[in-house]
């Protein structure tokens, strides 16, 4: 299906189209000069592109780290790959349910803070994976969410990445599964 073509929209009108992209199951809007060509990627230092993908703003969730393992490359010496959980409030008793894994987005100094904490709150080890007490709250960003029969939570998030450590939040403040399902 071809998308409609809009000509000479104001920046506000273009932003309205971008914001409505989520309802259309799109990533955003494609801006292109009328006679320009589509290109692959961007070249560093080049200006004046013929086309540009303007993605919608990411969704966010506050979640808790429940598993950690050491990263790769420059982060091979620290715990930087995490499994996140939220509360499943659809059961009689709320319980943590894993729903995403993420390893990018935070600065090296934030990763070192988490690494130090993980070493103190590890409960069990499963080879390279450490199960930790659910104390480290992180704000995650993601591009979209969908139902998933493969995951225990029943949801899958697309392109999860960490935004910041939430020192101001406790375990009771993390998001609930029912709230995330409303985003589908």
In short:
By secondary structure, the chain is α+β, with helices and mostly antiparallel strands. The chain has helices at residues 11-19, 108-121, 177-181; strands spanning 28-32, 51-55, 59-70, 79-88, 95-102, 122-126, 129-132, 137-142, 144-147, 155-158, 161-165.
Model description:
The structure is a single chain. This protein is of the alpha+beta class and 184 residues long. The protein folds into two domains: 11-55, no CATH class; 59-181, OB fold (Dihydrolipoamide Acetyltransferase, E2P) (Beta Barrel), CATH 2.40.50.140. It has three helices and eleven strands, in the order αβββββαββββββα. The protein has helices spanning 11-19, 108-121, 177-181; strands at 28-32, 51-55, 59-70, 79-88, 95-102, 122-126, 129-132, 137-142, 144-147, 155-158, 161-165. The strands form three sheets. Strands 3, 4, 5, 6, 7, 8 and 11 form a seven-stranded antiparallel β-sheet that branches. Strands 1-2 form a two-stranded antiparallel sheet. The longest helix has 14 residues, at 108-121. The relative contact order is 0.17.
Which runs of at least 5 residues are low in confidence (pLDDT < 50)?
none
Instruction: Give the integer mean of the pLDDT values.
Output: 90
Taken as a percent bin, the fraction of beta residues is 35-45%
CATH topology of the largest domain: OB fold (Dihydrolipoamide Acetyltransferase, E2P)
Global structural class: alpha+beta
CATH homologous superfamily of the largest domain?
Answer: Nucleic acid-binding proteins
The succession of helices and strands, N to C, reads: HEEEEEHEEEEEEH
Query: How far is it from the N-terminal to the C-terminal residue, by CA?
Result: 22 Å
Q: What number of structural domains do the residues give?
A: 2
Binned, the helix content reads: 10-25%
Coarse morphology? globular
What is the CATH domain class of the largest domain?
A: Mainly Beta
Task: Determine the number of helices (DSSP H or I, runs of at least 4 residues).
Answer: 3
CATH second-level architecture of the largest domain: Beta Barrel
User: C-alpha Rg, in Å?
Assistant: 20 Å
Oligomer: single chain
Number of strands: 11
Major pleated sheet: 7 strands, antiparallel
